[in-house]
Amino acid sequence: MSIRIRYFASLRDRLERDADQLEVDEPLAVGEVWQRLNPDLPLPPQTLAALNHEYAGLDAPVRDGDELAFFPPVTGG
Amino acid sequence: MSIRIRYFASLRDRLERDADQLEVDEPLAVGEVWQRLNPDLPLPPQTLAALNHEYAGLDAPVRDGDELAFFPPVTGG
Amino acid sequence: MRIELHATAFDPWAVLAQHVATAAHLRGRGGALATFVGTMRDRNDGDHVQGMRLEHYPGMTERELERIAGEAAARWPLLDVVLLHRFGELQPDDPIVLVAVWSEHRAAAFDACRFIMEALKSRAPFWKKERLAHGERWVTTNTPGTAG
Amino acid sequence: MRIELHATAFDPWAVLAQHVATAAHLRGRGGALATFVGTMRDRNDGDHVQGMRLEHYPGMTERELERIAGEAAARWPLLDVVLLHRFGELQPDDPIVLVAVWSEHRAAAFDACRFIMEALKSRAPFWKKERLAHGERWVTTNTPGTAG
Predict the structure, then answer these.
(1) What is the Cα–Cα distance from D57 to D125, expressed in whole angstroms?
(2) Residue C103 in this model has a pLDDT that exceeds 60
(3) How far apart are the first and last CA of chain A?
(4) Cα B70 to Cα B4: distance, rounded to the nearest angstrom
(5) Continuous H helices in chain C
(6) Phi, psi angles (nearest 5°) of residue C15
(7) Would you say the C-alpha torsion C104, C147, C37, B48 has a positive or negative sign?
(8) Does D148 score more than 70 pLDDT?
(9) What's the gap in Å between the CA of C28 and the closest CA on chain B?
(10) Cα D45 to Cα D50: distance, rounded to the nearest angstrom
């Protein structure tokens, strides 16, 4: 199973990268993907997640080919 | 005491005149001016009154030289 | 603060573009602008409306609009208000009213813009007379300002 | 319904004038138009802001704006919505966002315009980075949409 992960704004700056690619065999939830990729950094409070361009909870299941994104609270408008 | 009275919109159409001039000796309130000028027509419900370009109640005292106006509910905007 | 009655058609977008271009006190500060434009519809109460005459009370109408804008400015931290209203003969799609309210933040701009419109609808001395295919009629009530 | 992201400065008044001139479905019907324009302020949190970079999430941002406008159209009887938002490098006074909502009556136009702005502020994936005299900083919270 192949998942593309993207990071935006201050979270990208903090992680010092804007994307990850994860190859796994077992099913994972959104929050588990974060833990797998950032084992030393608990998900910062208020971080938002989106799965295939739609907001998703941390327990949403991630599927093969999905694009998962993590980002800080939005400040548009 | 000389008072100028103006009528607007549908009220003017109904009265078939747009203004009156009233000369009186005793003090009158807004509602009394209407009665004096239109003895056969009770003030139509929802009619508004303005004294010198400011909304006024029917018991507001009218003074010499005042401009008093009666008009139906407003429909601007 | 700019409050005007217009006897002939005005272009709300040209007015706003020109106002923003020349209002030095908004420069860098006017982060939020809420506007309302009311235009003449060609239907009302199920009838086709060909035109409209908008009557006002010269002298009082201007003062009442100024009082309304002043009340809004006393209640919210506003940077500027533009308030234009037509009178005279209107055609469908002609702008009737433009309310534009600048503030640093959106809450005050939204609240004050709506307050001005509701106050204008209930207090500013204007009266609409519609021209229909079979004659004329006075508009007797305004549409409520809150959703039913 | 017209929803667009712009990489360079847009003129909200030219956009609205052009939209009204060409939107046949508004002719005679769009009696009420509520708009909001947010522009870049040159001060924030007590500091002078020289410029701003507005980041977005290409693909998701457009879809989220479409979802928000769709929710508004499902909830209120709207005739049209125009929603433009900047991204990229901004200067003070540059428009950031334009929301324009047409309806037959003002209550729906006001309510839907404000709903779209609040939803956009809380949900649309945009992030502001301010350029100050002494460096850059991410904006971390939005101003609340209700008066304090």
Answers:
(1) 6
(2) yes
(3) 37
(4) 11
(5) 12-22, 60-75, 106-123
(6) -60, -45
(7) negative
(8) no
(9) 31
(10) 13
Residue of A nearest to D83 (CA): A77
Give the mean pLDDT of B47-67: 98
Distance CA C82, CA C106 (A): 16
For chain A, what percent of residues have pLDDT higher than 90? Answer: 100
Mean pLDDT for chain B?
A: 97
Report how far residue B69's alpha carbon sits from residue B55's, in angstroms, rounded to the nearest whole number: 9
Q: Does C43 touch chain D (CB under 8 A)?
A: yes
d(CA D6, CA D96): 9
For residue range D95-107, what is the model confidence (pLDDT) as tens digits?
999 999 999 999 9
Residue D125 and residue A13: Cβ atoms within 8 Å? no
pTM of the model: 0.95
For domain C2-22+31-137, the CATH class is: alpha beta
Fold for the domain defined by A2-71: Ubiquitin-like (UB roll) (3.10.20)
Q: How confident is the model at residue C147 (pLDDT cuts 50, 70, 90)?
A: low
Q: Cβ–Cβ of D57/A71 closer than 8 Å?
A: yes
From the list D11, D142, D1, D2, the residue with the least C-alpha distance to D86 is: D11
Q: In this complex, which of D41, D105, D106 lies closest to C28 when CB atoms are compared?
A: D41
Q: Which of C55, C59, C97 minimises the CB distance to B9? A: C55
DSSP letter at D8 equals S
Structure tokens at D115: 């709903």
pLDDT digits (tens, 9 = 90+) for C26-51: 999 989 999 999 999 999 988 999 99
Question: What number is the ipTM of this complex?
Answer: 0.94
Could you read off the pLDDT of C128-144 as tens digits, one per residue?
999 999 999 999 987 77
Which of D39, D41, D60 to probe the A interface (max A CBs under 10 A)? D60
